[in-house]
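Protein entry
_____________
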Amino acid sequence: MSATCWTAVVRRLRRRGPTVIVDSRRRQAGRLRREVARAARTYARGLGAELPAGLLVVVQRVVYEGRQLNGLLQAFDGVSGNRRYVVHLALSVNGRQVGDDELLAALRHQLARALEDIVGKPVLNVPLDLEVPRVRAGAPIVELRPEPHERQDGHERRAVPFQRVEDDQAS
């Protein structure tokens, strides 16, 4: 074995990060491998823990478990009593491409569950939903012609015709 090859093997064994497999084009795969590994290490470090030994992250086109999902965490109990984790992340969900930020959010969500064995379960969980409803294209934002409503005095409320407004201004 050459010295260069041996150095690469030793460096890979010493690295304290997850093994990341990305099913994508070469350039995108390299970028995603680095981002996913960095995000996983940073998240674990932020919780004051190390990533579980042998953590495998698989970024693939689709994750399917009865329906399409953003991510899936699998835990396997080993013979020696240690637990191994596999995190599956989807590049596409229901035909929609997933952005890098959404992919990393799914990773952090799955890592939180994997790290529960090390750091414990959260004692406080406060959900926050900042989803803003999207306006459909072609749908009016404001109702252009309001429906006539019955007023309390018994008269219908109607829009003022343009001709009447012009006549009033002319006089």
About this structure: The beta strands are 19-22, 56-60, 63-64, 68-69, 71-77, 83-90, 92-93, 96-97. Residues 26-46 form the longest helix (21 residues).
